[in-house]
Every structure is written in structure tokens, then in C-alpha cells.
Amino acid sequence: MSSDHASSKPPISSSSSSPRVMPLIPERFLDVPSQRLYALSFGLLIQAIKIFDFFQYLLTSEGATPHYGKKWLLVDLLFCLALSRLRIPRLNYPNSIVVLQILGLGLLDGLLFGGIRLHVFGDSSSPSSHDDHSSFQSSSGMLSISSILSVLTFGLATGEGYGSKDAHLTGQHTVRMSPISTAQLNPYSQRFCLDTSFNPVLVPVLLNNSNPNSLRYTITPLGHVESSGSKIESVTLSARDLKAIEYARLEQLRATKTAKQEFYDDNVDDYDDEYASDDSRDGRTSPPRLQKTQSLVHIRLSKPGTIRLQDVNDPSGVDARISYPSEVTIAPCPRAQFVDGDALTRGDNVKCAATGLNTLGQEKDVQLTLSIFGVPPLSLKWFKEINGRREYFIVEGIETERTSRPETSTPLYNSPQEVRVPLTVSAEAFGIHTYVLESVTDALGNLESASWSASNNGDLSPESNTKISRSLRVLHRPTMAFKGCGPQKPSSLRIGSNVSLVIDTQEADDLDSPWDVKVRYRPPTDESGKSVNKRLRPWQQTIHTLTGQRDLTVEADSPGDYTIIDIKGKYCEGDVLSPETCTVVELPKPAAEIEWRRIHECSGDTGVAASLVLHGTPPFHVYYRMQRDKEPAREEVKTFYSSRGEMTLQPSQSGHYIYTFSQLSDANYNKVELKGPTIDQIVHPLASVTFAGSSGRDRMMINSCSENSVDVDVVLTGIAPWNLNLQLVGPQKSEIISFSGINTVRRRLQVAVPKDVNREGGSFEINIVSVEDSSGCKRTLSVPGVTVSVKKVKPTAKFYGKEGRRRVVTLENEQASLPLRLTGDGPWQIKYRILEHPEQSYPAQLVSPNDYLPVSGRGVYEIFEVSDSQCPGMVLAQESTYEVDWIPRPSATISPDTEGVYEPYNGTYILPVICEGTSGHVDFDLTGRPPFQIMYNIARSIDSGGTRLLDQPTFNSIQPRTRFQLHTSEPGRIYYEVKQVGDTAYPLSKHKGVVIPRSDRPLFEQEVLMRPSARFASVNRLSYCLHENFVPQDRGTGDGVIILQGTPPFELTISVQNFAASERFTETVTIHDTTWRLDLPGYEFKSIGHHQVSIETVKDASHCEQKLPDPQERSIWVDVAESAAIVPFDRREYFCVGEVAQFQLEGIPPWTIGYRVNGGKAHIQEAKQSPFAFSLQQPGEFKITSIAQQQKMCKSVVTDLSYAVHPLPTAQVGQGNRIFQDIHEGDQAEIKFTLIGEPPFTFTYQRSELNPRKGGKPGKVLETHTVSGVTTTEYSIFSALEGVWTVTFIGDRYCRYPSAQPDRILDQKS
Length: 1310
Fold this sequence. Notes:
Elements: H1 32-59, H2 68-86, H3 95-112, H4 145-152, E1 169-170, E2 172-177, E3 182-185, E4 193-194, E5 201-208, E6 214-220, E7 233-238, H5 239-256, H6 270-277, E8 294-301, E9 305-313, E10 321-322, E11 327-332, E12 335-338, E13 350-352, E14 365-374, E15 378-386, E16 389-398, E17 417-426, E18 431-441, E19 447-449, H7 452-456, E20 469-475, E21 479-483, E22 491-493, E23 499-507, E24 516-522, E25 539-544, E26 552-556, E27 560-568, E28 575-576, E29 581-586, E30 591-601, E31 604-615, E32 620-628, E33 634-640, E34 644-649, E35 655-665, E36 672-673, E37 678-683, E38 688-691, E39 700-705, E40 709-717, E41 722-729, E42 734-742, E43 746-752, H8 755-760, E44 762-772, E45 778-780, E46 786-791, E47 796-799, E48 807-810, E49 816-822, E50 828-834, E51 837-846, E52 852-855, E53 859-867, E54 874-875, E55 881-886, E56 891-894, E57 901-903, E58 908-910, E59 914-915, E60 921-927, E61 932-941, E62 947-951, E63 954-957, E64 961-965, E65 972-982, E66 1003-1009, E67 1013-1016, E68 1022-1025, E69 1029-1030, E70 1041-1045, E71 1050-1058, E72 1063-1071, ...
Helix pairs in contact: 1-2, 2-3, 5-6
């Protein structure tokens, strides 16, 4: 059916001139799109309901299966007819389409609801399912119209049984015994109790095979005795009452399902949901699913007592049997709680440790009272939790008084009681103590969680529910003391500042915070007890700790004693620990006593010296200022680590100096003003001189390279001009030289090298002896001198090796090390160049006199400059060069003796043409160091114009001339290219990336001609009749076709061998194409039997030797026969439907067999092997009329081969229908059998177990019986047993069903 938005035209075709078909419902009432929408929606609704019925059909037992198939066949038929009647555009179809729709929906209904069964894997009982027979039906009417109508109408159109598996053995008679009805109160042994609001509870009653009209039970009050005034109440519930209770229960389940969804699985059924949602305090899991014969009803109760189920009445008038146990006791739910009014509920739930003991002492016990209600005796489970650690306790046998109960067969329970139980707990540990009532259990086993009411209120925390829990907090006494301060370790206070005194809380609970600390202050006193400073007054104050902090800080700005007097928290008083007193001492400012002394030498005052006595805490920093003439004053500082120190101030320059001490710092105070003395002095410093660049006490080294003198720089201090005396100390003697009139502070002196050192080389020393300034004050000095090293020999450099041997040969781009010989003191710096490129030079640093120069290029290397660590040198010209050369790479060239033509356009050699498979070679001349390796490419031209790489082999050769084998195994244009050549020096394994440049590669090519060949395209046998000429028969196949390869035209020689006459015929034909079909009109088949056609020789235009084909493709066989024949295996006069008639076929396959059924239309059947068998499927006369062989050739007429085919007998149980009969104990059921065929009959019937589920595995066979010699068509038996009665075998005068399995016929090949 098309949708509303389909773009295709309506199914009913009409010309443009024909009037439009109007719908049955006019458009003024309902437009066409809406009619289509409603019709399609209604059709989809029908199919949805059909799917629902299909699942119900699967879950229905076989005996109770409703007639879904008939119902839906009728519904689909009415829907299709109504849709056609409505004439809705785009849904209005021709009558043929409507019929197909009805048939399609009927087929679907048959598949869904059992009307049609698909035997995908065959049926073992079918007599015609044999793999080794040529399965053939003797009539095209195998599937009759009546059978199709029977399937589609589910037995309405024919008398065959509904859903029968076999048309010859139909029907079944099912006998069932009516079960006994039972009723069981509380089948899952649940416990029930009534809460404080006495909400009703539902007690289940499990019914089996019963639909009660009424249910009666009694209620016995708790504690009932005969002498008491209480009465036993009897209650009767009608079927309406039970339905009302069930309806109310389901409504309550639906209302509470969302709230309890997280606790229970959504996949359980309603009964499971009920028991999962009930207050199942005994911890039972949900009951199993009910069986099909079981059902549940409920009794609603709202008062306590013992419930006994008395009777359950069925509509049949038979009372259900009451199962044990038949009673259940319902009591008020037990409960337990703390009684208000104890110390903890009055607010005394925080306790402090005793003074000095840090324990509770005598106040550790707390008295609590419990109220417990329920049916005695009761048991209580509770726990105490101390700082997260739980300990559980159980108290059992709780009741007010023990009452004697009479001995009965059933237990009797007292009425519920309320019991008050004292509970004494001890708080022996610090922290949080929590006492929680967990659960209470009564005598009936009802376990009630004490937190149940709290969870119903939405609060599961035990501490929040004062009815079931009590909480107590035990706190430490706070203890405090001064931290880092005490009488023996006072705290220092600077003048004018504060000091922080920390009071440390050593043991306390945060719940007790904040704390109040009382602190007392006492100023320092003298020996008589009077205050040293009258401005300081004693005080006492209370300080509060900050929120979240345990330590307390006291800011002290005055010296004295600070003492902790008292501590008090929010709940507990505290203890003061030692040290409780902190002494604060005021630190004095530092001071200094300074004594000056002038320093006087030959030239006058040269500076001052000061002696200092310091008071305070070391280290001390003394700040002083020094001013020279009119220059700005400079502030200096000097550090002393003891209380006494010395300072010496001697300026290096003369002038008017003023020295002033300004400030003093110690460890506590920084830059305290110091009123020290000031000294005014004119300073004349002593003359002094040092070598420039000299440092510390080490001598300075100077190198001299073959000069007669050496330059030395000196730095002088004092008053110019200066006179300087130097001493030269040589290896053997020394001398004094003088320099006078030096007016500059820095002067370069030229000192002559001693003659013996200058002549032989070596070293000498230059020392300063004395210096004299302008005032004539001469001063002898002892300062580090200068050591001068004099070299008379220059460093040299040269390449090592004799003349003509300074040459090395390496591989290409391989590094070479050139040997050097160097003199002098290392390290050396050299410069070298390659003579082929003299404009570019390269530096190198060498560390050994026998070092090597690493190079990697080819050429002549020359050294042109050298210097050592001290002096420049010279290069020996005769030995300044070294030659580096490379080993030449190997090469390959085509030998000039090679036959071929050189093509200069592309640089290739064109070799002569060669036939395919012919051996050929090319000679190569190789240069290098053998053995050689040659890697080359072999390519072949392709039809698209390019080339395809065939191989990339590598071959080895030890001779300078090698022979290269050509590739001639396949025809075409073959190209060769030498890609790489390796030898001992340059092996290919180490130089894979180095290839010969394309312009230098040896190239050659050759045309390889294809060798002619001929073969048969197919080796299938050919068939000819006697006296026929050897000409083509069927040009549509590949049989007898010869395929030729090579260069046309071809000369083909064919031979025909007649083995029967021992004759041989040979003929040569010329062919201008690559294919040829056998056509030898001059040859006639004169005898029957096998003939062999062979290809003898083939030649083409290339004149190459032919290629030998595969022997199997070189010849084919020709079968020559006279006529075909068919012979039956046995001489039977008749067959039964379903049996197999076997025949022996003579001739050459395949055969074509002609036959008729009941004198009707002629049929043909092809057989590919002998023997051959017909499966006879229709009663009447079966006759063979003809047989031909080799694609209907050499046909023969058969006149005397016919059989009579009898129908198979049929047995029916219950007229072929499914009969279900229910009987009670003592009754009998009549099972009728209907027999169809030619008497006398023999049949077998059996009784099996009932099938529990539709489509399930058949029940077990209980008994089997065979009855023989039955001459009537009706037969009956009587039975009082339960089971399913069916027929398994039927036989009449001619045939039997199922038939015996025929012997398997082995396949035979001609």
C-alpha cells in the first residue's frame, strides 16, 4: 500500500478521458487524506493486535489453543474487502491485487498460528526424502488446489484435521484427568504484624485449580482461654469481597511503585511486587512465579489474633482441600524506645573529666530507661558506639510476669505487654558515646527495626531520633602553659617594642572552645621588693581564645612576670601546667668606648689605630665615615664578634683625612647613634710597588720568543717621582738594575734578558728590591716576582712520511687520518688547505706532537701556518703536503662483441629478436676489485604503453668479463637496466643507497616472440551418432573449440583415432584466427565406440618451435553410439504413491526420458547418471514413452513399460481433528479411529504424556499397540488413562504408510 505522500500514480490505471473513481464516503464528510490515514491506522491496529495474539498463542498450551488462525483469517478477509469497497484513492486496487492481498495475509496467518509448517530440515518420516534418488514427482499436480485451500482456511474447506503434520496420519485424542482443588493459607510462611496505626495487612491464600465462590476463616484473640470472655469470630468472604480486596491491593501497589522503585526490580510480576513491597521483616525473598493452575487471593485484617482458614467453596460444589498449616497469628508490631526524663534528655549530655585525674571519676555511670512493647517474651538488640567503634548487645526473655499457658497442639500466645527496663551505661572513654536501639523481636518472630519510624519520617540518622538513641559527650579538662618561655628561659623585650607570649593548649576538646584564660602581670622589683620602674603597674585580666584556634597570644610591652591564674572552657574548667609564669626582660641598647692612636713613620703620619670596648650582644657592626680633603665622605662598616676590637686606618693616598664614628649595631638593635671621637689628620703614605697583573702570593709567568728584552708593567703608590730597584736572578748569577724618575702610577719597564739565558734559552726571575719616593724615604719590599721563560727554538709542523709516500687511498667519502709531526709546547693551532682550492683554508687544534689530521675529501692537503701555546712557528716546506685519493667505484659496460644495434637517441642496445624459451645472453666487461655484484631491473612492455617491472635480481661474478642470461620465459618487449655494481671495496650490502646515475646506466632491450601453441578450450566429451560427419553440432558451447596462440596465420595438423577399427585419420588446416571449432566434413563416423581427436602440430608466422601443451588439453574424446535404452530393475505390476521405480539406462549420458501420467500430457526428464529412479507421487497409470541420449540425440520409442500406482492408506483419530476430553477418576474415554483404503487394515497407535506447552517437545511415549485384520473403516477403544492418543502406522491391501525405507542405490558412472 502506498503512503499519502507517495509520488506514484494510483494502482488502477485509467485514461485521461475516463471519469475519476469517487470514494464511498463523500469528501464533504471526510476528505481523502483523512480517509487514507484512518484506513491505514486501522490496518496497523489490526496487525498490532495480531502480534499480541501471536505471543499469547506461543504461551498457550497445546490442548487449550484458541482458534486464532480462523479468527484472523476472517478479520483479514473482511478488512481487505471493506478497503476495496471504500474506494479510497491510492488505496483502491484491482480485484487481482485484492485477491493476492487476501492470499498473502492468509499465508502469514498460517505461518503465525500453525496452519502452515515449514520443514526446513526435512522430515525423517517422509518416504520420499532420500538423498541417493533422483527426486522427481510424477505429476505437476503435486500441490493440489484442495491442499492449498485446506492450509489457508485451516480445515474449513476440506475435512482434513487442523494443523495436522501428516495427511495420512491425522488427528489426536487427548484425555486429561481433572485435578484436585487445594487452598493454603500463608503459603510462603511470612510473618505479619500491625503497626501503631493498625493499618490492615493482607494475608495471601494460594489456590490450586480453584475459583472460589466463598472463603471462611476464624479469628482467635491473643491470650484466649476458655474461661475468658473473649470470643472466636468467624468471617466469610464472598467472591465479590475477594475481588474488591484484590483491586484495592493493586491500586495501592500502583500508588507506591514509584517510591519503592529503587529497592525492587521492575521485571517481577504483580505478586512478586506485592511481597517485595510488604513489610517482610523476616528477610524472605520474593516468592517464585505462580504456575498456570495457581492463583492468589488475600484476607484483609486490621486487628490482632490467630487466623484459621476453615473452608473454600468452589462453583462445582466441591470444597477445596485445606493444606497445612492452616493458621497464622497476627500481633501488634513490637517496638522499643527510650523513656524521656533521664539526665541526657534534660541537657546533661556533656561530662568533663575530674580535676587532676583526667577521667570521669565517680560520675561515669548514666541511668537510662527503656520502654518495650510486644507479645512476650521479647528480645532487644542495641549497640553503643564510642568514637566510631560499635559494640552490639542482645537482651532476651523480656516480659513483665510469667503466666502459665495450657498444653495444646498449637502454640498459644499472650496478649501484648509493655515492659520498662532500666539500662545503666558507663562513660569510661573520652569522645562521643552513642546508644542506639536497633531492633526488637517478639515471641512470634516479628522483627521490628527500631529505626523504622525514623526512616518513614525521612531521617535515618540515629542521633536525630531521640526515641531510639541517646548521645553523651565526654570531654578532657583543658590544660595550658607558656610555650618557649619560663623563669629559666626569659623572653627578651626591646625598648619601645612588644613581644608575643604564646600560651599553648596541650589537651582540650574543640567542643569546649572558646576558652577563657586569666593572666596576671607583676613588674620587676629590686631586692627590697619595690618596683624598679614606678611607671609600671601590676594588672590581671581575662583573655578569650579566637574561634577555631587553640593557642592564645599575649602581647607584652613591659618587662616583668606574666602568670596564668585560671582556665575555663564552655563546659569544663581547666588545669594550668608548668611553666605557668613567663619572665620578660628588657634589653639595653649597645654602647662603645673608643681610644685613638696616630701611626707615624719616616714620611710622617700614615694613619690611625683605634681600640674599641663594645657593650651589648655580639656580633657588633661599627659604622664610621672617612673624608679626604674636599671629597665627599665615605661611610664604612667593620664587624666585630667579641666585646673588644682593634681598627687600623692607613690610606694609600696622601691628603687631609677626617675620621668619625657614627653608629653601632648589635644582635638586638640596629644603628644606634654613637657619639664617638673625631680625628683630623694629614696622611703621607709610604711608597709601594707591585707587578701589574700579579695576584696573591703566586708568581706571574711571562713567555719570550727569541727577543733580547722583555716588557714588565709595575703599579706604584706613594708620592711621585719614584726610584725603583729590580733584581734579575738567572740560572747562575743575578744582577740589580735601577729605574729612576718614574712619575706615573703605572709604568712599563723594558728589562734586558741575561746574556746566558738569551744565548741558550731557559728562564729567569725579576724581583722588586726597593722603592724610594720624593721625600727620600726608601722602603725595601718583598712582593711576588715575575718568572720569564725564554724560548730560542720555534715550533714546527710537517706531515710524516718519506717523499713520494705521503699518499693515502680511501673509499669514497671515507675519513682519512693524515699523520703529523709537531715540535714545541702544545696545544698547537695549524691552518691547512687543499691545493685544488687554495682560496679556502681550514683551522685545526692538535694536542699531541704525533697527532693526526682528520680529512674526508679528495686532493692534496698543505699546511701553511702553525703556532704552539707560546710562540708562532714555521712549516717545513718540503714536507708540508699530503695526497688523499679515492678507490674508484666498480663499473659495468656491455662488451663490444655483443651482437646488437646501439641506439644513441636513448642510449640503449637493441638485441636481435629471439623466440620464447630460447637461451640468450649478453657479455659484460667489469672494472673494480672482484668478486662483483650486479643488481639490475627487468621490465616488460604492457598494452597500455608503459612497462611493468618483472624482477630485480642480483648476480655475482668473480671474473672481469661475465655472461648475463636473458629473460625469455615470456613473450613481449623485455627491457634491461643495470642499476648498481658492487665489488670488494664497495659491497652492495653497505652501499644500498648509492646507485648508478641514470645517464650512465647500461641499457639494452630485446623482443621475445611467442611460440605457437594450440589447446582445446574444453575437454568435455563430444557425442555423435553413427554415420554422422565430423561437423560442429552446438556452436553455443565451448566444446570442440581449439584456442591458438602465436602470430597468425596458423597451420594446424589434427588426427582422429578410431580405436574400434584401429584407423587413424590426419588432416592439416590453415587458420587465420586464434580460435577454431572442429570442422572435418571429410570424416565420417563408421563405427560405434570411442574416438580420440588430437592436436599433432601447429606452426605460425614467426617460425618458432611450437610450445607443447598440457597432455590433458591436447586431445578430447568423441563417443559414437547407435541408440539409448531403458530397462527396469524389477518386474513389479504396481507401486504405491511415494515409492521409487528404478531403471538401468543404456547409452551415453545425459539421457532424456519421456513419460505420461494417467494418459495425460507428455513429460520429459533428464538423467545424468545410471541407474535412475522415479519417485511416484500420484495414483493411476505411469508409462515410459521414449528415451534419448546426448542432448536428446539418437531417440528410441518405448512401448511396453507401464505401472499401476495405488494411493496410500490413511488413518484418522477423532475424524482427523484434535479432541480434548476431561474425565474424572473412574470414567473412561472412547477413542475412535477412521481407516481409509482397501481392507483388510493393520494400524499402530500409541499413548504419550501430555504436552505441557504449545510447540514444545512431545511427551514421552507410554504405550504402543498394533491392531491387524481390521475389515471395517471404523475402530474404537476405551481407556481411563490420561495421555495423548495418536496413530503412527497404517497399512491396507496394497500399501502401507510410512513405507519401508528402500535400499540405497550406489551411484554408477558409465
